Automatic annotation (TrEMBL), chain A:
Keywords, ordered alphabetically: ATP-binding, Ion transport, Nucleotide-binding, Transport, Zinc, Zinc transport
Entry GO MF terms: ATP binding
UniProt family annotation: Belongs to the ABC transporter superfamily.
Signal peptide coordinates: none
UniProt organism field: Pseudosulfitobacter koreensis
Protein name: Metal ABC transporter ATP-binding protein
InterPro entries: AAA+_ATPase, ABC_transporter-like_ATP-bd, ABC_transporter-like_CS, Metal_Ion_Import_ABC, P-loop_NTPase
Ranges where the ABC transporter domain occurs: 23-255
From TrEMBL, chain B:
Phylogenetic placement of the source organism: Bacteria, Pseudomonadati, Pseudomonadota, Alphaproteobacteria, Rhodobacterales
Record-given protein name: Metal ABC transporter permease
InterPro entries for the chain: ABC_BtuC-like, ABC_TroCD
Record localization: Cell membrane
Family: Belongs to the ABC-3 integral membrane protein family.
Membrane topology per record: Multi-pass membrane protein
Keywords attached to this entry: Cell membrane, Membrane, Transmembrane, Transmembrane helix, Transport
UniProt cross-references to PANTHER family, sorted A to Z: ABC-TRANSPORTER METAL-BINDING PROTEIN, METAL TRANSPORT SYSTEM MEMBRANE PROTEIN CT_070-RELATED
Gene3D superfamilies assigned to the protein according to its UniProt record, in alphabetical order: ABC transporter involved in vitamin B12 uptake, BtuC
Keyword Lipoprotein: no
Transmembrane segments: 6-26, 38-57, 93-111, 158-176, 197-215, 245-263, 275-296
Length: 273, 301
């Protein structure tokens, strides 16, 4: 009877939610050796929202993203992108890794790196036309890197490189953006530039999922949170899920007292809003 | 020099030299960027056991079985290098070192144990090849290029090498984008759904084909030098892959032509009587080009 009521109140079945979600993970277990780095995780990302993946170092956040992308093979579990296996939906996903594993000495300029994002559009033999170049320049413009278009990629600062890889992701024209710590090691101005771009994507109906460490900005930047520590801890809108209790569980009591107090301030401050 | 002298004596070796140089330099660009440039060295070592096995199986010293034996050995080596690199998680340079020394040593042992002493498999030939001997005696001048009868006696190495060059160029043209992206950022290439493993393997196999085809005509010195020197010099000229590859073709061509001419006439100009090995001179010129680029290249670091 109770169950029936819940259904009538509009709660979708799991299958329905999974079909509609730009990224749905079920029972995902990934292991590098003996001990799983991600264990039996369920995650359902809401379309058109910004989700923060939060957890301590080594919690399996990067591993979760890589498995979601199909770069890592899971031991168990499924990943669907809009209801389809991820391999069929590659054109819909853009990914910015935590540390780009690129060859920094490679003979390629910033603009060429951004053009690499258009491989999905251009295919094996498609010609790069002026409109593709214009599109790549526009992506660089959006991350404030247009002036560096003809620099060799290794001749940039770390924060500038980060922005170029964001521009490459933008050039992919994806619907789902997965970013692993996009704000790591960038200055405040760059962080503002990046968050503006990400919010712009969200407002254009795209879905953004980002691993995020700075707990004080979660409320300002994100709509949803996903807390993880090898296993999923909690998932949902920031207002209801980004709570001290959940954070304590995720961080296993490893958040320092002062950090917790500062956080409590931002938590109560915004919930009174 | 008149056409009646140049065409029969120098044109064919020069063209073969250019084909070899470009066919090795093209994949060399990617191998160099992937830090696998020593694969040329590896392949020219492993062809020895291939040639010995081919001789033991057929009992004759002929070009085709030896070429097939060399190709077979190169493929075995490539597979072994990939397997060691993946399974042992060893860096490519070390994996190549393990495989080519083992296979080369195996070749020497095979040679000693079997009764090949009657056959003269000489070291000098393996190193320098016989570029100068690939003359086209049926040619009488430039007009022979349109004469089917003379063309029928064109040294077989030329069409064989031109074919290898065509194959290499076609592979690189078609897979240009995946090769570029996966060499620069393999993780990203995989998120785009590229099969980076098979692609890397295909690149090495194509390089092996070029090396084996070249080995027979020109020996291993040029092969090793052309995989590394023109791309290395070209890298110092530019920060764009497209431009780098274009420069590497220019450098390879210059090295082949200038090396051949210098080998033939350089000693005479210096007052000596004999000419020197064309293969050795071509390799030397390519080394000089690298030195020049290292001193003056606009993109040197
Ligand atoms: N390539 C690897 N080989 C072996 N173990 C790994 C590898 N990558 C990660 N791990 C382990 O898996 C666990 C999860 O790592 P992961 O990189 O997913 O953590 P994370 O949540 O992204 O951490 P961080 O906040 O430091 O980026 C860690 O215990 C880590 O040591
Ligand atoms: Mg991480």
């Amino acid at each position: 009877m109770n169950l029936k009521l819940a259904r009538d109140n509009g709660a979708a079945t799991d299958a329905e939610r999974r079909l509609a979600s730009p990224l749905a993970v079920r029972g995902l277990t990934v292991s590098y050796g003996q001990k799983p780095a991600v264990f039996s995780v369920d995650m359902t990302v809401r379309a058109g929202h910004m989700t923060a993946i939060i957890g301590p170092n080594g919690a399996g956040k990067s591993t979760l993203l890589k498995a979601a992308l199909g770069i890592l093979k899971p031991l168990a579990g499924t990943v669907t992108v809009l209801g389809q296996p991820v391999a069929w939906r590659r054109d819909h996903i853009a990914y910015v890794p935590q540390r780009a594993s690129v060859d920094w000495d490679f003979p390629t300029r910033v603009i060429d790196v951004v053009l690499m994002g258009m491989y999905g559009q251009l295919g094996l033999l498609g010609r790069v036309r002026p409109r593709h170049r214009a599109q790549a320049m526009d992506c660089l413009e959006r991350v404030g890197m247009a002036d560096f278009a003809t620099r060799q990629i290794g001749q940039l600062s770390g924060g500038q490189q980060q922005r170029v890889f964001l521009a490459r992701a933008l050039a992919q024209g994806a619907d789902l953006y997965l970013l692993d710590e996009p704000f790591a090691g960038v200055d405040a101005a760059t962080e503002q530039a990046i968050i503006t771009v990400l919010k712009g994507l969200r407002d254009a109906g795209k879905t953004v999922v980002a691993v995020h460490h700075d707990l004080s900005t979660v409320r300002d930047y994100f709509d949803d949170v996903f807390l993880i520590n090898t296993q999923a801890v909690a998932e949902g809108p920031v207002e209801t899920t980004f709570t001290q209790e959940n954070l304590q569980t995720a961080y296993g009591g490893r958040l320092a007292g002062a950090q917790m107090d500062a956080l409590a301030e931002t938590l109560s401050g915004t919930s009174a809003r | 020099m008149s056409g009646s002298e140049f065409v029969p004596l120098s044109l064919v070796p020069m063209l073969i030299g250019v084909c070899v140089a470009v066919a090795c330099a093209l994949p060399g660009n990617f191998l160099l960027l992937r830090r696998q440039a020593l694969i040329g060295d590896a392949i020219s070592h492993v062809v020895l056991p291939g040639i010995v096995v081919a001789f033991l199986l057929t009992g004759i010293v002929a070009s085709l079985p030896m070429l097939l034996g060399a190709a077979g050995a190169a493929l075995v080596a490539v597979a072994a290098i990939e397997a060691i690199r993946r399974l042992g998680k060893i860096e490519p340079g070390a994996a190549m070192g393990v495989v080519f020394t083992t296979m080369f040593a195996g070749g020497v042992l095979l040679l000693e144990m079997s009764d090949t002493s009657a056959v003269h498999l000489d070291v000098e030939h393996a190193l320098y090849g016989n570029l100068e001997s690939l003359i086209w005696l049926d040619a009488t001048g430039w007009s022979s290029l349109w004469d089917p009868q003379a063309l029928a006696y064109l040294p077989v190495e030329l069409p064989r090498m031109a074919g290898a060059l065509g194959l290499v160029a076609l592979f690189i043209a078609v897979f240009w984008r995946p090769l570029k992206i996966s060499t620069f950022d393999e993780g990203f290439a995989r998120t785009m759904g590229m099969q980076t493993g098979p692609l890397g393997l295909a690149l090495v196999v194509v390089a092996a084909i070029a090396a084996v085809a070249a080995f027979d005509a020109v020996g291993s010195i040029i092969v090793i030098a052309m995989f590394i020197c023109p791309p290395a010099a070209a890298r110092l000229m530019t920060n764009r892959l497209e431009t780098q590859v274009a420069w590497s073709v220019v450098f390879a061509t210059v090295a082949a032509v200038a090396g051949y001419v210098l080998a033939g006439y350089g000693p005479l100009w210096l007052g000596a009587a004999d000419s020197v090995s064309a293969a050795g001179m071509i390799a030397t010129v390519s080394g000089v080009l690298v030195a020049g680029a290292a001193l003056m290249g606009p993109a040197r670091r």
